[in-house]
Amino acid sequence: MQHEIANFRPRAPWWGGDLQTLRNVLVRQRIDLSPWPEETLRFEMPDGSGDVLTGRIAFPSGAAARPLVVLIHGLTGCEDSIHVRASARSLLRAGFPVLRLNLRGAGPTVGLCHEQYHAGRTEDFRAVLAQLPDRPTRHGVAAVGYSLGGGMLLKYLGEEGRSAPLRAAAAVSVPIDLSAACGRFHRARNRVYKRYLLDRMKKDAFRARGGLPERWREPVRRARTIRDYDAGYIAPRYGFGTVERYYADCSATHFMPAVRVPTLIVQARDDPWIPAEPFDRFNWADAPALIPCLHDSGGHVGFHGRGSRVTWHDRYIAAFLSGAA
């Protein structure tokens, strides 16, 4: 897809991948969604766990015939992550109804779930789509996923193929190769990022409904890296056995050739967390429904560009979904 905003140029003073990534933390901002009154939706998981996912849904002013856009956060995120709220505001202004979804054990669902989300848990998203009410979906459904949530979305789209009930999708800053992303993330330069995310992952695990089962407490406590956490907790608890199997089975790159829904993929080569090599190796000709938008700069879910205070990826996604609608 060609569009006048397709060429991203970073906005001063946010030069380089780290500043692009950290801008939302360094600049405290309030994303005001009050012009669009929200209500909470609950989605009961059909796996017998008793777990419940939630999301906040809002409708735009006016009566534009636009699909509902489901926003899927990344690792340690939730409905109130800054980039999720910013995307919701951008899309509501563009006339789209929006659902800010919380994955299992994230944000407001911590006390409602015994278990946690992970990169391969597409069955939860499938269950959410099956339970969406009629009113917001009368013009169809689209989805946008960020980071780990984007990888999960791509995996889901590949699993569903032509049966996917989405009109369009987008994925931003996606670890399509989990093993490669884990290797990059644990470089010495990323130790502050690692410590921040790992601490939040551990806290969420221990805050699960009913508490973390005894057998998993010590593996979570002693994890010193995200790979340790995945190897000692996520992989064995959720049936993968080894971390290598978890990463292999859940990496989006294996599912992307089967995607049949028009899907925009936005990625920066200077993302400090996710390597560019898996995107370079992927044969995009084998996946014509995927529209890669790979830029030299932008960081991790950053893309703070010239010409607008609205993040570039939000403007690009709104234009893409408008064309797909």
Written account of the structure:
The protein is of the alpha/beta class. It has a single domain (17-177, 251-324), classed as 3-Layer(aba) Sandwich (Rossmann fold), CATH 3.40.50.1820. It is built from 12 helices and 8 strands. The chain has an 8-stranded mixed sheet, sandwiched between helices. It is globular and about 50 Å long. The relative contact order is 0.18.
Number of strands: 8
- How would you classify the quaternary structure? single chain
Enter the CATH topology name.
Rossmann fold
Q: What count of structural domains?
A: 1
| Overall morphology | globular
Q: In this structure, how is the largest beta sheet organized?
A: 8 strands, mixed
Low-confidence stretches are 1-5
Number of helices: 12
Could you give the distance between the termini? 14 Å
Helix content: 25-40%
Give the ordered list of helices and strands: HEEEHEHHEHEHHHHHEHEH
The radius of gyration is 18 Å
Structural class: alpha/beta
The level 1 CATH classification is Alpha Beta
CATH 2nd-level architecture: 3-Layer(aba) Sandwich
CATH superfamily: Alpha/Beta hydrolase fold, catalytic domain
